[in-house]
Amino acid sequence: MTMGRSTPHAGTAEHASVAPRPFSEGELARIRADFPLLGRTVREGRPLVYLDSGATSQKPRVVLDAEREFYERHNAAVHRGAHQLAEEATEAFEDARETVAGFLGTDAGEIVFTKNGTEGLNLLAYAFSNAAAPGALDGVDEDWAARLRLGPGDEVIVTEMEHHANLVPWQELCRRTGATLRWIGVTDDGHLSDPAEVVGERTRVVALTHVSNVLGTLNDLGPDSPVVAAARRVGALVFVDACQSAPHLDVTALTAPGSGIDALVLTGHKTLGPSGVGVLWARRALLEAMPPFLTGGSMIEVVRMEGSTWAPPPAKFEAGVPMAAQAVGLAAALRYLSGLGLDRVHAHDRMLTGHALAALAERPWVRVLGPADPAERVACVSFVVDEVHPHDVGQVLDDAGVAVRTGHHCAWPLHRRLRVPASTRASFGVYTTPAEIDAWLEALDRVPTIFRTGAA
């Protein structure tokens, strides 16, 4: 069954033979026409300038249609029932898994649907906690069992730029097991410090973000990169939060054989897809060894009153009736992104980021957080304004119809490291235009005058 298939308006036929380029003005207009919400007004009729895609992306009509079609024509409990609707729903759900696998360049048997990226990271962390339970690793290869059992003296490594979703689960894992949490620091210009200073013989897990949701920093996670190479030398598992990178970059290099990456998560709502669905990709051997996170229907093989056995992955990790309509919507979103060409999406992001950074550099009363080179960033710019709290900056922008994020963006330790209480973040999507960047900057220029700062 094929549901919600669509070819986006920006063609991709020639981009493979030429250098990737940003979307043209005409292409952007056609792309924006695919996103119904972008046509609305806010704050007494002002055009909406949506610069909060890092928090959640807007959804193209093809995604809305795919969910609606599922509910209107195929709605039934997946993997249950022998009637036609159940068969259609199951086929649609498994087709969505195949689409996700294609987007990530991997096998559908390695794709676990979750409700978001946070749940995927918790699933990984709880596998280590559950490994300590009696019988949890019965039948598991002893080498894998040893890698999953954590205790005092073992170490879990994160970075100082992590979203709370890739920090708190590991804090809790260490609290439960007695392992030690350590972290790779962040330099003043928004890059990772030398991982060799932290990763050592006792390191069992390295969990880190591909792109910082605050700094926009694109971390090098190639197999020979400092952090991945350091983890491989000591046999540590490497888990990647790709929630900020998957909407903007081709991430298939991370899942390729020999990449040194063992698992990766993404979330639907940041990737032009619905809320309530995410993805955990993990190598098959790891999924086979991991104890389940949730138990109940669908994930079982045999159930007796005395005990139960588990179905093979990915079913082992998908207890209960799954989010079938959302998975179908996510598949439509990933097809849409792929149709645009992720190389062109990235080129568009880089153009927007470069434009924003160059303009902000002309405003000495603005301090940009993170790398100065747009080539080292992906699709967001966080900043602080001299003498003005970020919440007040956000209010001025909102009054002009410009939607941005203010606060610590679920990255409180990073803001402490940068010695700022909070920041304002503008983040971009495939539908963001240079004119919207200019509208944001024009509204931002009102801030010093309104608050009578030294820059006014």
In brief:
Helix content is 35%, strand content 16%. The chain has 456 residues and is an alpha/beta fold. It is globular.
Would you mind describing this structure in some detail?
The structure is a single chain. By secondary structure, the protein is an alpha/beta fold. The chain has 2 domains: 25-59 and 341-449, Aspartate Aminotransferase, domain 1 (Alpha-Beta Complex); 68-338, Type I PLP-dependent aspartate aminotransferase-like (Major domain) (Aspartate Aminotransferase, domain 2), CATH 3.40.640. The protein contains 15 helices and 17 strands. The protein has helices at 25-32, 61-74, 84-104, 117-130, 142-148, 168-177, 226-233, 252-255, 284-289, 324-340, 342-361, 390-399, 412-417, 434-444, 447-451, and strands spanning 41-42, 46-47, 49-50, 111-114, 155-159, 180-184, 203-209, 237-241, 263-267, 278-282, 300-304, 307-310, 366-369, 380-385, 402-403, 405-407, 423-427. Strands 4-10-9-8-7-5-6 form a 7-stranded mixed β-sheet, sandwiched between helices. A 4-stranded antiparallel β-sheet has the order 13-14-17-16, covered by helices on one side. The protein has a two-stranded antiparallel sheet with strand order 1-2. A hairpin with a 3-residue loop joins strand 1 (41-42) and strand 2. Helix 2 (61-74) runs antiparallel to helix 10, helix 4 packs parallel to helix 6 and helix 11 packs parallel to helix 14 (434-444). The longest helix is centred in the first third of the chain and has 21 residues, at 84-104. The radius of gyration is 23 Å and the shape is globular. The relative contact order is 0.16.
